[in-house]
User: Fold Putative membrane protein from Povalibacter uvarum.
Amino acid sequence: MKDETPRRDPLFSMRLLVGLWIIALGAIFLAGNLGWIDTRQAFRLFWPLIFVLVGSSMVMQKTNKRSNRWGWVFIGVGIWVFADKIGWVDLNFWQLAFPLALLALGSTLVWRAFHGKPAEIPDLHPGEEHSEFVRSFAVMSGTELRPVSRPFRGADLSAVMAGIKLDLTDARMEGDTATIEVFAFWGGMEIYVPPDWTVTSKVATLMGGFVDKRRPTSTVPTKNLVITGFVVMSGIEVKN
Assistant:
């Protein structure tokens, strides 16, 4: 028997939130034009609720656990700033934002140091070729990497107020898939890939961006590069 239960539109929740926000904006403008409220004062009070709107939309994306976690962070920030605006709390969020960001950054680096996958150092023998795993940690500096001597196995790149350029255009991938784990805080990364590689992004961004600038090519893809990690107030560009 065919199930005739209507499927829920996956965009329903987001459409509902955006619709309610537009209605609220219309109501504020109307009340201001009628002289009932001060429109500028209303916006100064209620703009933190934008964070709540964005966070709620991220939480409703059940398939993305990382987006779900950061959605709750956005909701918490919006509620805290709104409570400070209307005088419910005496502790200003922005006075703690920078120290909290430093604590989060340091905790992330410590966690990755203890729980990250250790580098495998093979025993080298004459005439034997081994794969290469690239590691780079840059702080307030610039680094350029171009591994070509051995097959590329993957990479772990971290940039803190720094820039990293990884040129893989002449690299040979070990197997059909390789993974690059990235972490950028107030920094930037450029990753160059061969024309026969496809790129899959699993990067989470916070006030940052991931841009795929590869030019179209007629080369048939034979390898897949997966880029995963976290970007804070930074940018990552992929080129060929």
Summary: Strands lie at 132-139, 142-145, 152-160, 163-167, 177-185, 188-192, 197-206, 209-212, 223-232, 235-239. DSSP finds five helices and ten strands in the chain. Confidence is low (pLDDT under 50) at residues 5-12, 118-129.
